[in-house]
Design brief:
alpha+beta; two-stranded antiparallel ribbon; 1 helix; about 20% helix
């Protein structure tokens, strides 16, 4: 398929299972950092670290 697609950044707290999903127009690094900073306000506690995994579309 050709064209542009929205990416989803999914953040999960492994201790509680709390999940937040944020849309990204591209996988540009600065947009990912901006989304993580935005996500901080969605969690009721401080984000203390981030680990990334990348899944390729199937």
């Amino acid at each position: 398929m050709a064209g542009s697609f929205i990416q989803t950044l999914t953040l999960v707290d492994v201790a509680t299972g709390w999940t937040e999903r944020l849309p990204l127009l591209t996988r540009e690094g600065s947009l990912v950092v901006e989304a993580i900073n935005r996500a901080q306000s969605l969690f009721p506690w401080l984000l203390r670290g981030v680990t990334s995994t990348t899944t390729a579309p199937s």
